[in-house]
Amino acid sequence: MSKKTSGKNSVLLHTCCAPCTTYVHKKLAGNGYAVTGFFYNPNIHPYTEYEKRLTAMKLYSIEKELRLIFADLYDIDNFFDIIYKKGDKRCLYCYILRLHKTASHAKKNKFDYFSTTLLLSPYQQHDLLREAGEIVSKKIGIPFLYKDMRDGYKESVELSKKMGLYRQKYCGCLYSERDRYMPKAKGEAESK
Fold this sequence. Notes:
There is one protein chain. Helices cover 47% and strands 9% of the residues. The chain is of the alpha/beta class. Helix 1 (18-30) packs parallel to helix 2 (47-63) and helix 4 packs parallel to helix 5. It is globular and about 50 Å long.
């Protein structure tokens, strides 16, 4: 059974968080896509952060009537197994992990496309996102809908603030939290 609604192409949209979903959902729906959200983010650390993002996503989906699917809640062991010792390629593997799960569900449930709200953030590595989407698309056999949404980032901030959605301060994983909050090294340690 196809997920087409009123002749619209259907897209299963990996949702990283509610703030990023605001603009991407609005934009895709406005361009004629039937959008279903898919929340799978085993990278988010710590668990309390995961809960905040999950709660915000649920609130958004109710308020905006976005059908939302939750997959394998907090699968962090799988995340660490996949990215362990990947160094500067860990983001690519994280993207592939989340998009693979999304694409597999999309293919199984006859969606026309899969995509991700990560395409909104100017802080994500878009070349790697596109590469991950293409790798997964080829492997699973469903088209990756790539649309550079970064021009809507400021609008997403405004929309999420207006809705009172929880806004995180880092991508999600332990490494991104470290990179966001740990002071940058300035040569040798200063003595006090």
